[in-house]
Amino acid sequence: MIWLLSIIFIPAIFAIACLGTSRHHRLNRNLAIAGGVTLLICSIGLFTQVWHHDYIVFQVGTWPAPIGISLVVDKLSAAMVLITGIIALAVVVYSIGDIDEYLQRKHFYALVFLLLMGVNGAFVTGDLFNLYVWFEVMLLASFVLITIGGKRDQLEGGVKYLVINLVSSILFLSGVGLIYGKLGTLNMADIAVKVAQTSDAVLINSSAMLLLVAFGIKAAMFPFFFWLPASYHTPRLVISALFAGLLTKVGVYALIRSYTLLFHSQFEIVQGILVFLAGATMVTGVLGAAAQYEIRKILSFHIVSQIGYMVMGLAIGSALALAGAIFYTLHHIIVKTNLFLLAGVIKNHCGSTDLKKIGGLYRWAPGIALVFFIPAFSLGGIPPLSGFWAKFSVIKAGLDEQHYLLVTVALIVGVLTLFSMTKIWAEAFWKASPDEQADAPPKQKAIVWPLLAPCIALTTMTLVIGLWSDPLFALAEASSAQLLDPSGYIESVLGPTEKVGLVANHE
Amino acid sequence: MDTLIAILIGTLFAAGIFCILRRSIMKLVVGIMLLSQAANLLVFAAGGLTLNTPAFVLGDSQLPPEGYADPLPQALVLTAIVIGFGLVVFSISLLLRAYIAVGSDDIDAFNQTDQIS
After folding, report:
1. Quick check: A505 and B46 CB within 8 A?
2. Closest of A88, A73, A97 to residue A35, by C-alpha
3. Which one of A147, A186, A505 has the shortest CB-CB distance to B68?
4. pLDDT in tens, chain A (507 residues)
């Protein structure tokens, strides 16, 4: 119980502490690192507890389940919280080298912890309206973070990010309102029970579609992804890395939760739509990336394309496919954050992330080239790196369930992903630096260790997941087994009787 | 009354979407405000509209009176309105900064971040 509450309260406490100390740079920074470490310890604690007990449920204010707000952690939530803790620590350590005193005075660390609180809250809540509130907490912090600094392109990207996410929130709220109007409950487990019993599918499906669009916008699914490549390349790289790792995956998590729990009894209705959206997301993302020559824009478009694989796992819906989707999500969070952080290392060295202006990084630091090589080609799905196992399980599940067209698309997109990663590799690392061609003296900058240490740690994790994928895959399979049998979730929230009287009295 | 509220919600959504699709950032703000009010009203109306029935337990009884107004959507709407206030205030200040930085209130001028570099 204490672990469950701590992953929400620890970020809140440290956000307040960082808010008060933003003028004392050293103290502020040390507090932030202490916060990152504490959060990681708490998420490990929560994870081990859930691993042994399957479900942890906390009824806020001791109100019984469908009346009060429930916080529910199953294996998927616990895994997402754990990975959030890892990313949080990596980002906070990296920001020592990347965030200057000006941004600290603008409350960078407080905002990061508020964002983490929103993300963790969204992962553990078992109440639909509460999920909306956590989304807003997360969004407000992210709005400020993406525009922090106030340069023209940041503000411009911020406007696009803001407007589309507000529309998404409004659609989410409308969906929640309609569900409450029809079923008289907002508890997710209770909704799942009532949706399975209802005979009037029309109103339920209208809510299901509203939630699909709302979460689709958050997850940057086709055709709602345009905001992502328009805004993710504008803020500081450490902020991009945090967003790239966590925010879209909250959308994916919400999609998985909706269609394996809330609407699990009506899954067939959305399955066809999800299959189409998954394929279209993969293709548009990877084609968008092929046209770009800026590392951050290439990586942003690849987030879109990779979201397609995760949605593909959800759309196929078998046990292996869901396990693949979860494995993919966990692997992707590590790899994508790492690549954005490494783009920051490149920017720090070359002063640019435009592939036409940089080069010769392999000569400068072969070690960094290796650190970049592993996550980049893991993203492309080269065996034996982690991305290969992720893609393999999703595609194997697609073949088992005879989604041949989707599998073909996924394979082609995999090749194109490799093309983009090779492009970054060849242009940034292999090609001679454009400066050297003009006989300018090669730049020799010292390696900044706070920037590099998190990258090395994340690369090691990618390598370990790739070479020794059994434990993570076992976790993904256990989570997917839990998701496919929602009765466990429902019983642990509502109690074994499953029939708890409703207070709301509806006309 | 239900029909009137339903028509009102629909009109607000339509007007909000129309405003968002215009090119001026001022209309964008208005559109966001209209949409968030429409969603609030929808949540409020979803709980069922009742007249002259209190949303609380009377006297010594344990249960609220028959046909009472559902208090939960009102609480939800209150939360959503507060969140909406914060978001609208932030969007107005952001759009003002963006207007100063871009030097135009035409959304079509906000195209720098979408260019292929």
Report:
1. no
2. A88
3. A505
4. 788 899 999 999 999 999 999 888 889 999 999 999 999 999 999 999 999 988 989 988 888 878 889 999 999 999 999 999 999 999 999 998 888 888 888 899 999 999 999 999 999 999 999 999 999 999 999 999 999 888 888 999 999 999 999 999 999 999 999 999 888 889 999 999 888 887 777 777 888 899 999 999 999 998 899 999 999 988 989 999 999 999 999 999 999 999 998 888 888 888 889 999 999 999 999 999 988 888 899 999 999 999 999 999 999 989 999 999 999 999 999 999 999 999 998 888 887 888 888 888 888 788 888 899 999 999 888 888 888 999 999 999 999 999 999 999 999 999 999 998 998 888 888 888 776 655 444 555 677 788 889 999 999 999 999 898 899 999 999 999 999 998 889 998 888 754 444 433 333
* Interface mutation vs chain B, best among A163, A204, A420, most B CBs within 10 Å: A163
Nearest-CA residue of chain A relative to B115? A230
Which chain B residues are within 8 Å of A132, Cβ to Cβ? 80
Minimal C-alpha gap between A178 and chain B (Å): 6
DSSP secondary structure string, A44-79?
Answer: HHHHHHHHHHS-EEEEGGG--TTTS-EEEE-HHHHH
Distance of alpha carbon B65 from alpha carbon B88, whole angstroms: 38
**In the 3-class helix/strand/coil scheme, how is A306-372 assigned residue by residue?**
HHHHHHHHHHHCCHHHHHHHHHHHHHHHHHHHHHHHHHHHHHHHHCCCECCCCCCHHHHCHHHHHHH
**B79 to chain A, closest Cα gap in Å:** 8
Please state the pTM of the whole predicted model.
Answer: 0.92
Q: Name every residue whose Cβ is closer than 8 Å to that of residue A193 and which is 6 or more positions away in sequence.
A: A490, A494, A498
Q: B24: which DSSP letter? A: B
B79 and A129 in contact by Cβ < 8 A?
yes
A130 part of contact set with chain B, CB < 8 Å: no
Give the residues across from A58 on adjacent strands: A71
- What is the number of alpha carbons within 13 Å of residue A75 lying toward its C-beta? 24
In contact, A443 and A220? CB cutoff 8 Å: no
